[in-house]
Amino acid sequence: MKKVLLTFLSFVVCTIAFAQDLPTNPEPGKCYKRCVTPDVWVNQDVTVQVAPAYKKLKVVPAQYRTENEEFVVQSAGQELSVVPAQYETQTFEVVTQEASQRLEKVAGSTNTTTEEMMTQQGYQELSVVPAKYATENFEIVSNDAAQSLSVIPAKLGSESFEVVVQEASQRLEVVPAKYETRTETVVVQAAYTKLETVPAQYETRTETVVVNSGGQRLEVVPAKWTTENVEVTVQPASSRVEIVPAKYATENVEVVVQNASQRLEVIPAKWGTETLSYKKQEFGSTLSVVPAKFTSGYQTIEVKPATAKWGMSDTPAVDCQSNDPNDCRYWCYKNIPAQNITVNTTELATDAQVITKPGCDQGENNAEDCGMGTYTRRVVQTPATTRVIEIPAVTKTVKKTVMVTPPTTRVIEIPAITKTIKKTVLVSPATTRVIDIPAVTKEVKRTVMVTPPTSRVIEIPAVTKEVQRTVMVTPPTTRVIEIPAVTKTMKRTVVLEPATTRVTEIPQVTATMKRTVMATPPTTRATDVPAKMTTIQKTILTPESTRVVEIPATTTTMKRTVMVTPPTTRVIEVPQKTATYKKTVLASDARVEEVTVPAVNKTVTKEVLQTKGGLTSWAEVDCKLVAYNDLNVNWELGSATLTAASKREIDAKLLPVLQNGVSVEIASHTDSRGSKESNRSLSERRAQAVTNYLISKGINSSRIVSNGFGETRLTNRCSDGVSCTEREHLANRRTQFRVIDAE
């Protein structure tokens, strides 16, 4: 309500201060508003922390439990016992004479075959098939086709036309016109053109015409033959085999009658003791809490900054000549001090904290052996091992026949037998040679059009005639009496159809002549000549070879002692021994449970100057907006809640007006049903509902004035006690807006 009063007072002050000034160059039918622009204030919420957040700490002491733990007091080990080797006697065979081979000769064989041999290759003989010629008629153009032009003269005719010999004029009753006689040239025959024929030009040219086309004839070039000697193998080269026997020698061989072996000797393990430490008791940390400390303070918040406003002086000026004392008062821009509010606050000096002491502080100088215990354990220092003692092998010497050089064969070459025969060989095959026959030509004469016929345009000037007519020199100046023009009918010659040319085609002159052309080109015909064969006898040898005959080895049976199972050791496991000790274990260390006490804030609303006022200007205002404009807002009976359709109406009609920077008044009315107090309250709530919706759309509340008039401004006769229809009551139940200020 305070903002509404400030806006209204600003409007009144502007009206008083500038009532005598009017806008320059106003347009008819336009509305204008001039006012000192008010300061635009917006409310801003400031959150002040009156008590800070801090922590409350609670110590939960450490918890312990007792556990039993087994420790190894004697390590597991192994002892060894020897398992002796096992032997047996085996029979084995010794080769006293190794297996060998001897060679046996397999005699060769001779076969005689008959073979055909080509003594002369097959070839082709060529014979010429001469070309075929035919005589054909062909036409030669002796005179090219041309065109001749004949002139079609223009057609002239006569027509009647009117020539104005005296122009239409005006005669005046008071001042007669002045006339004079002038000589004027009139076209009695229009200019036209006629065509004159320019004949074509011809000349005689000499041209060479082919009367017998060029052709070809073929001439056979015979094949070339020669005789050469060919050596034919009638018996191929071969070889015979001669056996070289194997060579033998006797050598001594040592045979093992008892294999080398080993026996094992056990070296026992060595034992010792060692002392080990373990964690006998665990200690938790000791925690102590130091609570948070606070101090008192305060904070000053400026809820409205310092500003100024225009004010009128209490007394008029001494030398005021106006009857209205308000015209002579001084306008002062008076300071308005800022408004502050003091908020008491609590400030956190030091937050709560925890002091931690290690669990082993009970020990002397916090020694590392705090809570430690010891025990003795027997361990193997050197494990049991075995020592291997070698037993050498027993051998015996025997004699053995060994093949030093295996049997081989020696090849003796037998040369081939050849025979010389004669053979005819084609050196170069038969071909054809092309002999060109030149074409036969003949010179003929024919007439050729060099320049085609054209037409030349000859200008014929127009024919004119001088006639006399009366022309008005000085027009009349008073009442005009029309005098019709005087015309005269004359004849003149005009072109009905312009001259043209007619093209006459002159056919070309041709002459029929004969010439010989090659119908079928010359070719060659190939005649196959078969190859000549000669039969000769040929001996084919199968060479002799050798067959390997195996000679088995000679063996002697002997006995020897063999170790079937080698000596081994059997491991005897010595189990480990354990003992149980008690120890104290930390189940959970001392900890601090932290609870955060949130900060206490207080919200203070302060006014912030958004736009500085104090400027004066004229602004055009839509005349329709200066008066009240209806909003099609349908309120439910007794309700002040906007429907979705009503919000769309405000968005479409009222929001665009406010976005132009003006201030508006929202006025809401009710019908006469109900009490006056309840109707005024309902109308105010409806106007405020529209205002709240506009603020939610980003419109500053300082630019909106909401008024509820209840049933005080009825638009029809439907007052209290008058019977009306629902439609008539609906006309009174309305919401309106108007522009009250334009910046």
UniProtKB/TrEMBL annotation:
The keyword Cytoplasm does not apply. Keywords: Cell outer membrane, Membrane, Signal. Residues 1-19 form the signal peptide. Residues 622-743 form the OmpA-like domain. It comes from the Bacteria. InterPro entries: Bact_OuterMem_StrucFunc (IPR050330), OMP_bac (IPR006664), OmpA-like (IPR006665), OmpA-like_sf (IPR036737). PANTHER family: LIPOPROTEIN YIAD-RELATED, STATOR ELEMENT OF FLAGELLAR MOTOR COMPLEX. This is OmpA family protein. It comes from Olleya marilimosa.
